[in-house]
Design brief:
The chain is an all-alpha fold and 473 residues long. It has 21 helices and no strands. The N terminus and C terminus are likely disordered.
Length: 473
């Protein structure tokens, strides 16, 4: 298609280059979303909600399918949109672009901090409790991880895509392996060291599907929502995707379905092998399942996998934040130094800026040595920001339908349900925000979050409103 070819090669060395192929796109987006929330957070969500966590994941996955279809339709309606900053800026206004760009940046910085907490937690598998890292040691490991991620991202977008492809593939193969091992244990009525027999009946045999009642069901939503952070990563890769008209629809359609399969099937197997009441909240049930199977080497391999999956999640986050900063700087809404690309066509200044802030996560480890506490606070703040970003994407869709009806008519990738489904997704996101006020640890994060709004309002008015450049399409 001629339109696409115009975008395949950048018009100047100051533009991001379309180097990400369909396989990169598919796996980076899946890899970004299957990470810390599933591998580390599932132990806590199971302890909060019991087997009803399966229903929670299916509900969230269904809503995200519509959100991704809305995002896909808008991005394809105008190939000049480099990310959803451009989209929000154009359809709602520069203030919305400023909010979504900086909030997305902070959201992924918080994911990075949560990931550092998870890395420390996983490394404890190899060290006895009495030799656990000192806070200073934890901070040093965190710094090393951040520098490694920075080095990967500074080379080229193609190398980032390649490394992330393999990171994500390892993760997916591990989940498939877990589903097969769990399935084998269930069908052979395997007896675990705790004395329980692996069976699908374990899912409902200990108090039914809703053993913790309505409140337990609602409490499971917060970490489950965190597990889906990263699905919208496609919206930050639009400018670096080859043949977007062909590859974006493929990636959008596949991701929510695959995530539901990976999440739901893996959790069904975990709770069939180990009754949910025996799953510790502060450990990865993925690792425990292999230990119960009596395969110690598999448990070591699984720990390596979950460790690499956390690195993969942080890698995706650093990639997307640097692209957000690049877009903001181009619009005059961030320091101009962040708008420069290196000779390898990567926004190096943005990468260094983002990694410097994730380093504060290393300092955070020093002050909050309790890794689960650090993980919960960072992930709760992150979910609040992402809920607001997802809501703005849906508002963008409603604005697009009102302002550009002719583009919707021409679209070959229309969102199913259109306008009324957008309101259903917005109502669901509001419901998710209300749920956060029910748990003491997430309520704390909800009470802190208005400070971010105040900070953005002040910086926007004082620093950037006078300098906003008009865009030319």
């Amino acid at each position: 298609m001629t339109t696409t070819n115009n975008f395949d090669e950048p018009s100047s060395p100051n533009e991001l280059q379309r180097k990400l192929s369909n396989r990169h796109l598919q796996l980076i987006a899946i890899g970004g979303a299957i990470g810390t929330g599933l591998f580390m957070g599932s132990g806590k969500t199971i302890s909060l909600a019991g087997p009803s966590i399966i229903i929670i994941y299916m509900m969230i996955g269904a809503m995200f399918f519509f959100l991704m279809r809305a995002l896909g339709e808008i991005l394809l309606s105008n190939l000049h949109y480099k990310s959803f900053i451009d989209m929000a800026h154009d359809l709602i206004g520069p203030g919305a672009g400023y909010y979504i760009g900086w909030s997305y940046w902070l959201g992924w910085i918080l994911v990075g901090i949560a990931d550092l907490a998870a890395i420390i937690n996983y490394l404890s598998f190899w060290l006895p409790p009495d030799q656990m890292f000192t806070p200073m040691g934890q901070a040093a490991i965190s710094v090393g991880c951040v520098l490694f991620i920075l080095a990967i991202n500074l080379v080229t977008v193609k190398l980032f895509g390649e490394i992330e492809f393999w990171f994500a593939l390892v993760k997916i193969l591990a989940i498939v392996g877990l589903i097969f091992v769990g399935g084998f244990m269930v069908f052979t009525s395997f007896q675990t060291p705790t004395g329980s027999v692996a069976s699908f009946s374990n899912i409902w045999a200990h108090g039914g599907l809703f053993p913790k009642g309505a409140m337990g069901f609602l409490a499971g939503f917060q970490i489950a929502m965190f597990a889906f952070v990263g699905v919208e990563l496609l919206g930050t890769m639009a400018a670096e995707t080859k043949d977007p008209e062909k590859n974006l629809p493929k990636a959008v359609n596949a991701i929510p379905t695959r995530i539901i399969i990976f999440y739901v099937l893996s959790l069904v197997m975990i709770m069939s092998v180990t009754p949910w009441i025996d799953i510790p909240a502060d450990q990865s049930p993925f690792v425990s399942l292999f230990l119960y199977a009596g395969i110690p080497t598999s448990a070591i391999i699984m720990n390596m996998v979950v460790l690499s999956s956390v690195m993969s999640s942080m890698n995706s986050g650093v990639f997307s934040t640097s692209r957000m900063l690049f877009g903001l700087a181009r619009d005059g809404q961030a320091p101009q130094a962040l708008a420069k690309l290196s000779s390898r066509a990567v926004p190096a200044q943005g990468l260094i800026f983002s990694c410097a802030f994730i380093m504060f996560g290393a300092a955070f480890q020093y002050f909050v040595p309790n890794t689960m506490e650090a993980f919960t606070l960072a992930s709760s703040l992150c979910v609040i920001l992402f809920i607001s970003i997802w809501a703005i994407i849906m508002v963008c869709y409603l604005r697009y339908r009102k302002l550009r009806p002719e583009l919707h008519e021409k679209s070959t990738f229309k969102m199913p349900g259109g306008i009324w489904m957008s309101y259903v997704v917005l109502a669901f996101l509001l419901f998710a925000l209300v749920i956060l006020s029910l748990e003491p640890d997430t309520l704390k994060a909800l009470m802190i979050s208005p400070l971010w709004l105040i900070l953005l309002a002040i910086t926007y008015r004082v620093l950037y409103k006078p300098r906003i450049k008009k865009r030319h399409h």
